[in-house]
Amino acid sequence: MKSRSLLRSSASRRVLRPVADLIDKRIERQVRSTVARAQLENEELKRDIQLLRQHQFTFDLLVGPRARGISRVVVPGALDRLQAEVAKLGGGDREAAERNVAAAFRLLVALESLGVGRIAGGTMNICGKLGTIPLLDPPNDEILEIGTLYGMFSAGLIRMMERSGRSPSLTIVDPFAGVQLQPGTQQRNDPTGTPVDEHAVRTNLALAGQAGSAARIRQGFSEDPETRAAVSDRSYGVIIVDGDHSAEGVLADLQWAEEIAAPGAIVVLDDFGDPNWPGVKDAMDKHLAGETRFTYLGKAARSAFLRAS
Ligand SMILES: C[S@@+](CC[C@H](N)C(=O)[O-])C[C@H]1O[C@@H](n2cnc3c(N)ncnc32)[C@H](O)[C@@H]1O
Q1: What is the per-residue pLDDT across 70-99, written as a single tens digit (0 to 9) for each?
Q2: ∠ CA(136), CA(87), CA(160), 5° rounding?
Q3: Which ligand 1 atom lies nearest to the CA of residue 223?
Q4: What spacing in Å lies between the alpha carbon of 80 and ligand 1's midpoint?
Q5: CA neighbours closer than 13 Å in the CB half-sphere of residue 117
Q6: Where does ligand 1 bind, in terms of residues with CB under 6 Å?
Q7: Which is the closest atom of ligand 1 to the Cα of 240?
Q8: Which CATH architecture has domain 76-308?
Q9: Do residues 297 and 287 make contact, with C-beta atoms less than 8 angstroms apart?
């Protein structure tokens, strides 16, 4: 009690004033420098955020959904699942699966940047198809794509096969109706604004070099006898079924594939298990329940893979 009143005395105050002033000045200096540092950090953060936003904006122009209707941004969990599926289909080689899926992704972005139109479907599904087919080591290099839209997937497949040392030879069947034809859906212009025609397909195939330019293109419906007769002159090592997605359409394509698939051929059913296209799985289940040369190997994203005996 005594010492407290001593400190409060005017004499003590006088003596302690310079010390208190010194402490006050130090505190003030520290507060000022802390505030200045915080302001500087705040400015730096603002600049960093602005830069990140610009980068994000630029990156979105490359891979975002704008003007294409679908994003090419990769979600880590989905990529991991896809790599596991591709590795399983490819005999368990995870490293090869990761390499192929990454190469397929870069190819997808490159083709959609340089080509006209787009590749149909989700990013993981496209990378799964492109990455898996070479790993399944098809018995020959003849490839048939039923339903091509802009031919850009086939251009990518040519590149992926060539990366594995193969010499792909491509045949395409599509009605080229100016829009994407699909029974039971409304016909509308593509979000890319590019008409679905042979000219667009040729432009995209040219991006795949000599094999792309040499591709054989047959305009018509895959179920038409004239179309079939025109391209049934060989046994195919790979058949992509991606035309009419109704159960009847897919069944008809599978029946045709039985006749033109080389022994050991790979048949890919696109949009398998997609709730928007239940006919694909229904047709596959029905077809495999009957007499067939095909065995179900497995799936990657939304594509099923079959092998012919
Ligand atoms: C889903 S898109 C193909 C996408 C392409 N394979 C890709 O990966 O980008 C379906 C295509 O099949 C075509 N098509 C519809 N019915 C067909 C049929 N009966 N025969 C062949 N193609 C058909 C459509 O006009 C369209 O171009």
Answers
A1: 899 999 999 999 999 999 999 999 999 999
A2: 50
A3: 19
A4: 29
A5: 27
A6: 119-120, 145-149, 152-153, 173-175, 177, 180-182, 196, 221-223, 242-244, 249
A7: 6
A8: 3-Layer(aba) Sandwich (3.40)
A9: no
Give residue 177's pLDDT band: very low, low, confident or very high (50, 70, 90).
confident
pLDDT digits (tens, 9 = 90+) for 130-146: 999 999 999 999 999 99
CA distance 271 to 280: 7
Q: How far is CA 176 from CA 90, 141, 179, 221, in A?
A: 33, 25, 7, 9
Helix and strand counts by DSSP (H, E) for the chain = 11, 7
Whole-number pLDDT of residue 178: 65
Q: What is the pLDDT of residue 201?
A: 97
The yes-or-no verdict on residue 55 having pLDDT over 80 is yes
d(CA 165, CA 161): 7
Distance (Å, whole) CA 127 – CA 134:
12
User: Can you give the pTM of this predicted structure?
Assistant: 0.88
Tell me which residue of 177, 186, 179, 93 sits closest to 137, measured CA to CA.
93
Q: How far is Cα 261 from Cα 108, in angstroms, rounded to an integer? A: 27
